Amino acid sequence: MGDRALSELIDMGIPLGRAVAALKRSKGDAMSAAERVFAGEFDDIPSNDEEVDGAEGSSSVQDKADSVMIHYNEDNAMDEDEMGHEDDEDDEDDEDDMNDDNFDYDEDMSDDEQMASDPYAGIFFSKDRVEDIIEPIETEETTTISIPGINTTEVKILGRGEWMSGCPESGEQSFLFQLYNTLEEGRMPCSARCGHSFTRKREDFFCLFPKFPQYTIYLNRIIRPHCPQCHQITCLACGERVDRPSALHSQHTKDKAPMVSAPDIPSPTTQEALLHCPNLQGVILGVGLHMIEKTFSQSKDSTSSTENSGKAPPSKKRKTNGSPPLATGKGAIKGTGYAGNMQEDRTGQIAAEKAQKKADQQVATILRQVQQFLPNPHRAGGPATSDYLVHPTALAHLRRRSAFMNDLLRNDSLFDMSQRGDIYRALFDWLEIVSNNESLASMLGMPQMRQAKSVLSPTVPSSLIITYEGAPSPRELLENVVLQAKAALKGLEGVPLAQIEGLELTEEELRTNIKELEKKEAERVERESLDENNVLKAFCSLRIIKSAETIDKRLVETKGKAFVQRMKEQLPRIDESGIQIEEIPAEGQTDEEIIKMYEEWATRARFQYVDLRTGSNIMDAPSYKHAYSALITDIELDNAPKRSLAIAKELAILTTSLPVAWHSSVFLRVDEARVDVLKAMIIGPEGTPYENGCLLFDIFLPLEYNQRCPLVKYMTTNGGKWRYNPNLYADGKVCLSLLGTWQGPGWIAGQSTLLQVLISIQSLILCEEPYLNEPGWANMSGSAQSKAYNANIRRMVLADAMANNIKNPPHPFEYEIKTHFRLKAKAIRQQIEKWREMDDSKEVEADYWGGAHAHTSVTSALSKRSFEAAAKEVLRLLDELEGKVQPGPKAEKGGKIRSPKEGKKKPPL
């Protein structure tokens, strides 16, 4: 028994003890030994047994064996024999893990549930799982192949190591090894047993052609050789005779007209030959998925390089006629409309979009080509044997090499998906086939193992240590898109979609020639395809939502209802109503736990549908407590289909894209009946004079939206008295170039979004030195005027954006305001102490300019508040929210304090 044979077995992932025993049984034949191990003959030998008799391998071999697979499972991987259950003493830890979105993929299922076969039953999966796998570094091999009509000279051969690469589960490696070993055997007897042998080599099956159709054409030419002695046709992949057409071919020949394949899609006759047996299915999918991986990786690299090359320095500013002089210099605040170019330079963006479109077409093409060979019982023309008998290597490759699904689903923007329709249509076609196959659907609910890093092995020559880390399952990532699809459908509610009737022919039309009928049918199809509302509705309901429902249905069949219920509890969701503050305890939690709790709550609460109506007016039309109430009642929701389509796409984006963080978040409320009526609340960003204040905005999407920008009004003005920012006026005006209220890069019809407006307000208006937002003052960073301006804003925030909002939280953010301040009470107390040291001991000025302007600041006595008075009020209210003191008297509008004797007592929180 030589070290070389032992090293080969260890390279395959076989533990040392089993490798030694198998070599002894096989008399030193590495291939025979591997087959015996993978067949399970030596499962009784512990995988970590290093003291097996006869283990005379060198220390290097020993080191190699020790590092084949290293587990770093932070969840303490559960015993497979117990179907994923730890000891009872660890139950509390399990509950904590469950809250962290970690749960066993394979839990015990109810005895009364009839389960379909799950090929991965009993295997532990977790998003926190980490494994190090040793994989060999193979020398690239090529071969020369000539095919008539295809100018192919030299192609790469997919080596055994690359074929078997990936994070292994259960017995996957044995099946991968056996199939590769079988297909590279030199001689294969004729299926008629006439004595003739065919030559079979790995170049026949494992060549990586530049294009996938070249591979299938080549394979189709050599896969069914005729025996020169008995003339029997034999399948080169499985060695069985081919003496009658398959079901696919039989169905095809029954058709009067031949089936026409799309460009670059294998013809029915080619598919018939290549779907003959599970062995062919396994090798074609394995090679095809490797080619998809390569194409997808190259597409990401090409788009990334284009984006980087498109980043050119901004052109010089050009002032338009009648515009005020713009601020220049280092301190100019970009994006507010007061600095920067008059028009946006989109050269780089356009180049990136073209590169993205080209890359998407390449990936979509190969996805459509390879998906023809996915196991599909609903195959057009009838299923093949391999559609039911899925080869284990097909399962292994689909599980290991479907990272492209996660990468595409991780882009959870329905708007972006609609812009990149080619690749996402191909993706959902792929998901439809996989989710409708009971053998494949379960893997869509598994956390994926993705390659995180690779380093050279210090102990095993010519090897890499690949670290694989758990990642969300495709089903989990799909949920964000499902939420957006549902939001888009809600945005289309009430919109009269184009009614496309079937083609009904009169007797006169029946007498016309066929060309005229074909022309009318083409016009009907074109009308249907041009109705964007119909297209979006079909994409959301028939592709996205239906895919999720189908996956869930298959998971119920394979994993049980309890598993699916647990999975759904961990998925993102939109809460239907405000979350009660009492539901979230904060006392006794560490700072890290409170931050995590806050961000989880804010993620759930950031987007909701609510009733913003306040009743009816004299015309029996709904009225709204909204800055644009008059406009709202004048416009009917369903009389502008294009506007509704734009709103539907906007809502889809906003459901999952609103920024959420401990240091600043954005909350949005949409009227459940009028989706063009919205209210937003932005939490003042950390490090600014607005920090932790609740700043509210009323938003209306006008009839011309999105050819025209949204209407936005600032509402946190202390009753129209205080101006918080050069861009936020006391009358509610928001000065932002995106909103057309200042010259500069403005709203781009069909491309700009409400999300951009909200983020611009959050990051560019609510900035560290708002004084610099005023034209001509951008160079005054750190000046006494800027510091005084910040001090005045801090007093406003304490008195109004904090205290007034806690005492009288505006609808519909009552719960969100109280929860925000209660969870952040400790941080806000520390913030007040910090602000106290920075205060200048003055009182609030309604429109303060620090003497730099000749503005007259008119501030009523009721509006004037010192820092100490405002801070004291906020601290008292925080104590009330935390239950440390009883609620005090309630302040009415205008600043008057109402005692309990003057009115009803405020009930305790």
In short:
With 909 residues, the protein is α+β, with helices and mostly antiparallel strands.
What is the topological layout?
Elements: H1 3-11, H2 16-25, H3 30-38, H4 59-66, E1 69-71, H5 91-99, E2 130-136, E3 141-144, E4 154-157, H6 160-163, H7 172-183, E5 187-189, E6 197-199, E7 207-208, H8 212-222, H9 247-254, H10 268-274, H11 278-309, H12 347-371, H13 385-388, H14 392-400, H15 403-410, H16 414-419, H17 421-435, E8 448-456, E9 463-471, H18 474-491, H19 507-511, H20 514-530, H21 532-559, H22 561-570, H23 591-605, E10 607-610, E11 613-616, E12 622-624, H24 629-634, H25 641-657, E13 666-671, E14 677-683, E15 694-700, E16 711-714, H26 754-765, H27 784-807, H28 814-823, H29 825-838, H30 867-881, E17 890-891, E18 897-898
Parallel strand pairs: 10-13
Antiparallel strand pairs: 1-2, 2-9, 3-4, 4-7, 5-6, 8-9, 11-12, 13-14, 14-15, 15-16, 17-18
For the structure shown, list the relevant keywords.
909 residues, alpha+beta, Ubiquitin Conjugating Enzyme, 3 domains, 5-stranded mixed β-sheet, 30 helices, disordered C terminus, coiled coil, transferase, UBA, UBC, ubiquitin conjugating enzyme activity
Low-confidence stretches: 48-105, 107-114, 246-263, 310-340, 496-503, 578-582, 850-862, 891-909
Gyration radius, rounded: 34 Å
Q: How many strands, what sense, and barrel or not for the largest sheet?
A: 5 strands, mixed
In the CATH scheme, the class of the largest domain would be: Alpha Beta
Count of domain modules: 3
Q: In the CATH hierarchy, what is the superfamily of the largest domain?
A: Ubiquitin Conjugating Enzyme
State mean pLDDT (0 to 100 scale). Answer: 76
Main sheet: strand order = 10-13-14-15-16
